[in-house]
Amino acid sequence: MRIDLVIESENVFTGTSDAAKPGAIAIAQDRIVAVGSHDEVRAFVRKENEGGELPPVRAMGDALIVPGFHDSHLHFFHSAIYASPLATTFLGKNEADCVQRMVEFSKSRPKGWLLAQGWREYRWDPPVLPSKASLDEAFPSRPVALYSGDAHTLWLNSAALAELGLDRTSVPPAGGSYDRDDEGELTGIVREAAAMELMPKIMGSFTDEEVADAYRGFFARLAENGVTSVCDMSLMASPGLDFIRDDVHASLLERGELTARVHLFPTLLEDMSRFETMRATYTGPMLQAPGFKQFFDGVSSQHTAWVTEPYTNAQFEGDCGRPTVEPDLMRSYIMAAASKGYPVRIHAIGDAAIHAALDFFEEARATYGPLPDGRRNCLEHLENFLPGDIERLADLQVVGAVQPPHITLDPGGPERDLGQERVPLMWPFRTMLDEGATLAFGTDSPVVDVNSMNVLYTAVTRQDPETHAPCGGWLPAERISMAEALRAYAQGSAAAAGRERELGTIEPGMLADVTVLDRNVLTCEEDDIQKTRVLATFVGGRCVYER
Questions:
Q1: Between β-strands 439-441 and 399-402, what pairing exists: parallel, antiparallel or unpaired?
Q2: What's the CA gap between 93 and 461, in Å, rounded?
Q3: Is this model's pTM higher than 0.90 or not?
Q4: How far is CA 98 from CA 89, 93, 116, 148, 173, in A?
Q5: What is the mean pLDDT of the chain?
Q6: Which of 519, 532, 514 is nearest to 14 (CA)?
């Protein structure tokens, strides 16, 4: 065995303990082969290498070396598009401000669709839904589509509605809706499955080469943030609409341009052939298809998350949201996947969705036993629990894939929508870890940016990464330590991808995915976490980013 690289630092966090200590890492090909003190590793290398020759040594001084960050839940296609010149992103101050931003953006794209993402009307002043009228005034003949920040709602102008073939007679698909005014005319607001169904028609305006360029740009953004692996998650449950572009990833891999490991999770349907083809085709260390994704509900802010008791600010009697897939059908999906040993990851935000999903996972486990080869089922987002379900999550070894910056996306929203009694069971990271659950961190990009320091900052402070509110953190008892956050962002996410045996820690035998930070986030002040910069990112021992 020939050692190809040694990385040394005064602060190495392997992920197997809570502290960092001086050390070195020896890498052969794409694997870590030795970890220890500087002297121990150098002695090992001289013994292994012919003639006692030392390979290149990267001395990182007192920088912090950590296992590479792994974003356990993002939507690669949309993240890439919205991070590229093909589209734009903004929250906006109000409806008029958003329209003006689109006018400015149109100057850089004089033809075709205009696309944006990020608006959230409940954070506007005033907090009211927009309509097609304001867009029509600015864009009477050019199609415009603005995707909401939570990726569940579209705001369209009349030209876009016409281009998409929608009018007052149109019937939305199951699990979706078209907002209408008092006269029955479409307002331009399209929700849930109905919105998601339209995205391929809108995104189809981009060429394959434009998409590939957007992917390259987004991979560079990931590397800059120390992200060495991602889970590319299905965006929607309808057949053919998951936006898992395995062809683009495969093309970049063939060209040697894949700079993060990619794990594909297409939609779970009765016909599993597409996934099974991916699973058989992508078997290398950089590109794999580990399992499925499905969707059980929507989001709390729009009252589409499925909750057990009505929303505190109910819009009608019995306003409990709804499952996006009928429970009996979801059960059949999960049981069919379990019979073949395939893991399933389910979008479940409301407590009713979480509870039912755990019931199905429990039945599948009792019927077919644990999943083979260390694979794990996962629940995605997990915003509010019923008492007892956190313990069940841990007992069933279901991974909780969560996105820390989601906690503060809607200040006051949990209290407004669910009330004070349910708030203590929302995003309960500390309680989940104390019960023995596995947390996997991600961003749900493009809902939240892939800024790795924002992920860590919010996890340990429970404060918004932009405003730093509220002082002391929202539900501060649910704060977790930085060491726990780093493990969730590496080991936990590796578990969600079914790869915790080869990713997530700095140990011999593991793949050499390493992130180097310019300060020790384990010991620095909380206010300094976001000032931390990635100095270098290594994937399989190859440096894919260096500041």
A1: parallel
A2: 26
A3: yes
A4: 10, 7, 9, 11, 28
A5: 96
A6: 514
